[in-house]
Amino acid sequence: MADLLNRVLSALTASRKAQLKDRTLVLGTLLSTLKNREIELKRPLADEDAVEVLRRGVKTRRESVEHYEKAGRLDLSAVELAQIKVIEEFLPADVDPDEIRAAVRTAIAGGAADIGRVMGQVMPAFRGRADGKVINQIVREELQRA
């Protein structure tokens, strides 16, 4: 079993013992999602797979926060933000934007002239380590400068 999966399981056990209901709910949902992904893949999860699942969970919750704030439901937005904080405890640190920017500049210098080609060259290097929106933003900025 992946190290990340074990960490989530240990944190779930600790939160149950401490009777932290909200944290237990988030971690239980997270563990369930990880197990479902393992079933989909028909193999034990590697840490990269688990990180991908966690990032997807954060992305979904951020989208929910946006929708709740537009609807004026700040109470529900706060719940989602708290869940994001719990999930982010298990994610590796994001890549420095300067590192992404350097890779984008290299791709552009190599002849990639549109967003699709640059993203195609840069994304594999940062998959699971950086948010696609951040990479896309940097690609757009660098293409405007070029």
Please tell me about this protein's structure:
The chain is mainly alpha-helical and 146 residues long. The protein has 2 domains: 3-88, Uncharacterised protein YqeY/AIM41, N-terminal domain (Hypothetical Protein Yqey, Chain: A, domain1); 97-145, Arc Repressor Mutant, subunit A (Orthogonal Bundle). 78% of the residues lie in helices and 0% in strands. The protein contains 7 helices and no strands. The protein has helices at residues 3-17, 21-41, 47-70, 74-88, 97-109, 115-126, 132-145. Helix 2 (21-41) packs across helix 3 and helix 5 packs across helix 6. It is globular and about 55 Å long. The model has no long low-confidence stretch (mean pLDDT 90).
Number of helices: 7
Q: Spans of 5+ residues with little confidence (pLDDT < 50)?
A: none
If you compute it from the alpha carbons, what radius of gyration comes out, rounded to the nearest whole angstrom? 18 Å
Number of domains: 2
Oligomer designation: single chain
The geometry reads as globular
Mean pLDDT: 90
DSSP strand tally: 0
Q: Let me know the CATH homologous superfamily of the largest domain.
A: Uncharacterised protein YqeY/AIM41, N-terminal domain
Strand content: under 5%
Kindly report how far apart the N and C termini lie: 45 Å
| Biggest sheet record | none
SSE string, helices as H and strands as E = HHHHHHH
The CATH topology of the largest domain corresponds to: Hypothetical Protein Yqey, Chain: A, domain1
What proportion of the residues is helical, as a percent range? over 70%
CATH architecture group name of the largest domain: Orthogonal Bundle
Highest CATH level, the class of the largest domain: Mainly Alpha
Query: Structural class from helices and strands?
Result: mainly alpha
